[in-house]
Automatic annotation (TrEMBL):
It comes from the Bacteria. Residues 602-772 form the AMP-dependent synthetase/ligase domain. Pfam families: AMP-binding, FhuF, IucA_IucC. It comes from Paracoccus haeundaensis. This is AMP-binding protein. Residues 114-314 form the Aerobactin siderophore biosynthesis IucA/IucC N-terminal domain. One of its GO terms (biological process) is siderophore biosynthetic process. InterPro entries: Aerobactin_biosyn_IucA/IucC_N, AMP-bd_C_sf, AMP-binding_CS, AMP-dep_synth/lig_dom, ANL_N_sf, IucA/IucC-like_C, LucA/IucC-like. GO terms for molecular function: acid-amino acid ligase activity. Belongs to the IucA/IucC family. Gene3D superfamilies: 1.10.510.40, 3.30.300.30, 6.10.250.3370, N-terminal domain of ligase-like. Residues 337-464 form the Aerobactin siderophore biosynthesis IucA/IucC-like C-terminal domain.
């Protein structure tokens, strides 16, 4: 699991297991998480384009308590699974990860065995990521790569009659000719085997003292690397690692030199594969195969180039959560570096598409060479067991492997290396390279804010072009069920294919006009500037031009700060400078602001909070964080999938821009952006679209509801403030479908209510967050996800359904002699009197009780009548000490009222 360095080994093991079980369908999706047996698991999470599940916080049960491994074990058993192997793998992995100690801080500077020793995290997906079944703690310390201990192979003198050899002598330059290397741990075990004892008794097997080469374990455990940089030895090791015991598969040993020699010739024949280096498996030997199987065998392999980095390392983090490759990304630019890496991976793809050969392209088998972090080449190793080919697609004939391994001659396709269908090759490469290696890297870049995942996969689709005969753009591809395998299920499971072009569009409508923001007429504001160090404020009256630039800057990985066009220019320039912008685009053109923008990899969107309870705050959110919000919005709100989004809200605000435009585009719609607020014109335009879903501020929705009449609006989304009850009733009556969304400036949309029955119902939290609030009484609403907590400043209750019920702003609660009085309760009581059209409660100072409530209202009702009405419905502490009747209340465009400012104004006015 990338990012595991910041959590305990036990937490990492549990989280990684839940991610795998959810991805493989053992856990069933449910509200806020999953279920299995009688257990409901709740955890903020996101789904990658590959279907991989990523937990954003620790998993919990329905009571809010942290989930325990024992809870999962019991639930799996109740669901009919045997969880023993899975739980053992989890616990052993956590144990050995803890023994490995903290990660080193200088891993990018390491090479060879020292680098391998520093990569302590283990498999990034498998629940048994560090199982090492068979190793004791002492064995792990002696033979695990993390310890960096010197390992000297045992060299056996073996009767040639019981040895099968191929290629060069594995002992060449290291031991007497013909000697067979064996791992010291393996030899210790073999000596207890009666068959080996019999061979030794008759002199067919001896272990004379040999001062062989000094070696170290690599991340694969069974492969030893010469400390002097020489060849590697892949040795049989009867230790359980992830899903299998690591003895060498007997049929894969003798064929190893022939396969790697053939693969080398294929690479040499194609100039497009010049960037690929094959590490030949040039010598192999297996002893007493009929008697011992693959328990005494060795393959000698050429070493990787100095400084080569395993692909798996690219997705790791440092102890502080920063990406291990962050210095490389900063030096070369995230977009450029990612595109270059994907280009370097092309040979593995081309071998499949043009030569009919599929490599098991996982993170240990592929390495990159680099120059100061800039990828320069691809290195591939370990072919003898896992390489696959399709005879009728080969550019060079395969070697006669049946001459070496006769059982291969009549074996059905798929038994060994030869496959029967082109999609078999795709399945291997897609599972290893796409579903795992690239998904891990995409998650790292996304999670650390370096690159939104959608852009990563767009770059990947460009680098790994579609091969129709291989159906590389299929919507789903099979993935190996690694977690389910520990439960006894061996079948694959379907996984979404991120290389399939998504349904999303980059177009939008301005009223009736279709706009392509990436057309040739749109000005390029970057003009060669470094997008990571460019931050542009947008003060533009042309809504289409402004949205065009937002979309272009987002796509380029630059930062932007959309400012409402009614903002005075001087105030806008001040906002832009406070936001760190170095440029500002206005109707007059692009202007410099006399300052440098801060470095922001892949860009941020800058917005300001509403300021209704204090000074507006500058909020910067990475485009990756916004993409997480969009994906969660889509997952939580499928009801709108077929609706046309119509945005009658400012695109300079997250409601109109993210929930309206960007979500709509992600669904494959070209959203309709309206550049006016004429209610009758809006109703005419809504009639032109299929199943319109209108995004607008509450005041406009209220007017539209009155004009549209009963069921006159197909679907409505409200946001920004709790609707007054009268408004809510009117809008609900005019809408066939009513939705409300709740959020905060710092974290975006957090919850969606679908057809709520009261205005305070904010609905269920989106899947990427966990909301905390009161249970029996209103409490502070906080947001938890991705290791961070945001205090919203709101008060609310989580009800029995899991819905957030809004109770007001903490800053607006009225403190009457130490007891909380909630403005919403007073407002609801006032609005229940026919003739009251709007109401807002606020605090006024009181010399005895500290504060008392007051109420401003609009409506044709005398103060005395309203006072009597409230006296009958409210407690003495809730009853307003002052009523102020106004022609209308000063609600902003979003429907909110600045209560403090209103109170100050009314208190200053003469009574």
């Amino acid at each position: 699991m990338p990012g595991c360095c910041q959590m305990s080994p036990e937490t990492r093991a549990l989280r990684q297991t839940i991610e795998a079980l959810a991805f493989e369908g053992i856990l069933r999706p449910a509200q806020g998480g999953w279920t299995v047996g009688d257990l409901a698991i709740r955890a903020p999470h996101r789904l990658q384009a590959s279907g991989r599940v990523r937990l954003l916080d620790d998993p919990r049960d329905t009571t809010g308590g942290l989930l325990k491994p024992d809870d999962l074990e019991r639930a799996l058993a109740k669901a009919g699974h045997d969880p023993a192997a899975l739980m053992t793998a989890m616990r052993r992995s956590a144990h050995f990860l803890r023994a490995a100690g903290p990660v080193r801080d200088n891993r990018l500077s390491l090479k060879g065995p020292a680098l391998e020793a520093s990569l302590i995290e283990g498999h990034p997906y498998h629940p048994g990521f560090k199982t090492r079944a068979g190793f004791s703690d002492a064995d792990n310390a002696a033979f695990g790569p993390e310890g960096g201990r010197t390992i000297v192979p045992v060299w056996l003198s073996v009767d040639p009659a019981i040895v099968t050899r191929a290629g060069t002598d594995p002992a060449q330059g290291w031991a007497p000719p013909g000697a067979i290397p064996v791992h010291p741990w393996q030899w210790r075990c073999l000596q207890r085997d009666p068959a080996v004892q019999a061979l030794m008794a008759r002199g067919a097997l001896r272990a004379p003292p040999v001062d062989g080469p000094r070696m170290q374990a690599t991340a694969s455990l069974r492969t030893l690397a010469a400390c002097d940089g020489g060849d590697h030895l892949k040795l049989s090791l009867g230790v359980g690692v992830t899903s299998s015991v690591r003895d060498l598969v007997p049929w894969s040993v003798a064929v190893a030199p022939a396969i790697s020699d053939w693969l080398g010739r294929v690479v040499a024949s194609d100039q497009h594969l010049a960037g690929l280096t094959i590490l030949p498996e040039h010598g192999a030997a297996i002893v007493a195969r009929d008697l011992l199987g693959g328990r005494l065998a060795a393959i000698r392999r050429s070493p990787p180039p100095p400084g080569a980095m395993p692909l798996s390392a690219l997705s790791l983090t440092q102890s502080d959560g920063r990406a291990l490759i962050a210095p490389w990304l900063a030096a070369h630019g995230t977009h450029a570096w990612t595109a270059r890496l994907l280009t370097i991976l092309q040979p593995a793809w081309r071998l499949m598409t043009h030569h009919g050969i599929a490599l098991e392209a996982h993170g240990q088998n592929l390495l990159i060479t680099h120059d100061g972090g800039w990828p320069t080449g691809l290195v591939a190793r370990d072919f003898s067991e896992s390489l696959e080919y399709l005879p009728d697609r080969l550019s060079l004939p395969a070697p006669d492997l049946a001459a070496i391994e006769p059982a291969m001659a009549e074996a059905p396709d798929g038994t060994y290396h030869r496959m029967g269908r082109a999609t078999d090759l795709r399945d291997l490469v897609a599972d290893c390279l796409v579903t795992h290696v690239l998904s891990d890297l995409a998650d790292l870049l996304h999670r650390t804010g370096h690159l939104p995942e959608a852009i990563f996969w767009r770059l990947a689709r460009a680098a790994l072009p579609h091969a129709p005969s291989l159906r590389t753009d299929a919507a789903m591809v099979p993935a190996e069920s690694l977690a389910a395998g520990l439960l006894g299920r061996t079948e694959t499971h379907p996984a979404p294919n991120p290389l399939k072009e998504p349904a999303m569009t980059r177009l939008f409508h301005l009223n009736d006009t279709l706009i392509d923001p990436f057309g040739p007429d749109a000005p390029d504001l970057l003009a060669g500037r470094d997008p990571d160090r460019t931050r542009i404020a947008l003060l533009m009256t042309d809504r289409a031009a402004c949205l065009t630039q937002i979309l272009r800057l987002r796509d380029a990985g630059a930062s932007c700060h959309p400012i409402h066009p009614e903002t005075p220019p001087d105030q806008a320039r001040d906002l832009a400078r406070r936001a760190g912008c170095d440029l500002m685009m206005t109707d007059a053109g692009l202007q410099g602001l006399g300052q440098h923008a801060p470095h922001a990899p892949s860009g941020v969107l800058i917005q300001t909070s509403s300021g209704t309870t204090g000074a507006p705050k500058i909020i910067a959110r990475s485009w990756a964080a916004i993409q997480t919000e969009i994906d969660a919005y889509l997952q939580a709100f499928p009801q709108a999938a077929g609706m046309t989004p119509v945005i009658a809200a400012p695109i300079t605000h997250s409601y109109g821009l993210i929930a309206g435009v960007l979500v709509g585009q992600a669904r494959g719609h070209a959203p309709v952006v309206l550049d006016h607020a004429n209610p009758r014109a809006i109703l005419r335009q809504l009639a032109q679209f299929r199943d319109p879903l209108i995004y607008a501020a509450p005041p406009l929705l209220h007017v539209l509801a009155r004009l549209a009449g009963a069921q006159g609006l197909h679907a409505v989304m409200s946001s920004g403030t709790v609707l007054p009850q009268r408004w809510f009733d009117a809008i609900r009556g005019a809408s066939r479908q009513l939705f409300q969304q709740y959020g905060c400036s710092e974290a975006g949309c957090l919850a969606i209510a679908q057809n709520p029955d009261r205005p305070e119902d904010m609905g269920l939290p989106l899947p990427h967050v966990r909301l905390q609030a009161g249970r029996d009484a209103p409490g502070p609403v906080s947001v938890h996800a991705a290791g961070a907590t945001v205090q919203t400043g709101d008060l609310g209750v989580i009800d029995a359904r899991g819905h957030l019920i809004f109770a007001g702003r903490q800053a607006e609660v009225i403190d009457v002699a130490g007891l909380n009085v909630y403005p919403a309760h007073i407002e609801t009581a006032a609005l229940s009197l026919p003739g009251i059209t709007d109401a807002v409660a606020f605090a006024v100072p009181d010399p005895v009780a500290h504060q008392r409530p007051a109420l401003a209202y609009a409506g044709d009702i005398a103060e005395a009548r309203l006072d009597a009405h409230l006296a009958a419905l409210l407690s003495p502490r809730q009853r307003p000490v002052r009523l102020v009747r106004l022609p209308s209340l000063p609600r902003g465009a979003n429907g909110k009222i600045a209560r403090r400012a209103l109170a100050e104004t009314l208190l200053e006015a003469p009574t």
